[in-house]
Predict the 3D structure of the following.
Amino acid sequence: MTIMAVTMKKYAHHIILGIFLSGFSLSCAEDKPSSNEKKSKTMETAKVIKTDEEWRKKLTPEQYAITRQAATEAPNGKAYEVFNKQGEGTYYCVCCGAELFTSNEKFHSGCGWPSFYDATKANNVLERVDNSSGMRRVETICKRCDAHLGHVFEKEGYKTPTDRRFCINGAALLFVPKGGAAPKLEPVESLKVQEKKTEVKKAAGE
């Protein structure tokens, strides 16, 4: 084998090794979560945490029963009448101030409760399976404070962009007319603070 052939062979080996190491480095970089991803996961676990006593002080008896105990307001009641009269604006969580719906997604379904065909892009409405009351439904709750809002139903034949009906309790909503100031957000707490509060409650026998 000539000197040039040996040199070329060594050069090829260096190139292959370099490519392998570069690929390995990129793979490790992809596997390692970014600071933004870590922050996002932390925010997902952060919640507005209050004791029952604190919620009772902040809310009316009806608001407390609906948002914290998953009660349902009467259909075609006062809250529904008020809802029908409201114009352009945004609907926020009565408990923590998170944006939930807007008048753009509002429609009159005739069910007797405030109806929306979708949540806002703020993405604060969480959906979860509800097997209570002997039936399988999908409950809607506020992602920031776990307030019960109502339920969501699909494929009922409504001529809306989604054919979904977010059937929401009016008492769970705080309406702000277009151009008005959004309510102050209740602060969320980190997972560590939540765990500490849970420990304190358990120690107190709650």
